């Protein structure tokens, strides 16, 4: 396993986090950002994970650019 494979794995994980819908998936399970920020548990592990999910959802445009670059590199290198 090389560095490129590891970077692709992290990119896939970021893609998975970016497509999670708050209304349909996160809120019914108690993973809403308003629940964590309202109760003051933002420093807990759950709060940190919810913050990571929202950060990846906020940075969708750079994520799209990274996906395009990855696809182009895969097309060129084979």
TrEMBL record:
GO BP: any one term: protein transport
Q: Which Pfam families match?
A: Yos1
Taken from the UniProt entry, a GO cellular component term is: Golgi membrane
Principal subcellular localization: membrane
Q: Which domain of life is it from?
A: Eukaryota
Where does the secretion signal sit in this chain? 1-18
Keyword check for Nucleotide-binding? no
Keyword annotations: Membrane, Protein transport, Signal, Transmembrane, Transmembrane helix, Transport
InterPro entries in UniProt: Yos1 (IPR013880)
Q: Does the keyword Signal apply?
A: yes
Q: Where in the cell is it found?
A: Membrane
Name the PANTHER family for this protein: IMMEDIATE EARLY RESPONSE 3-INTERACTING PROTEIN 1
Recorded family membership: Belongs to the YOS1 family.
Quote the protein name from its UniProt record: Immediate early response 3-interacting protein 1-like
Organism expressing this protein natively = Phoenix dactylifera
- What gene name does this entry carry? LOC103713711
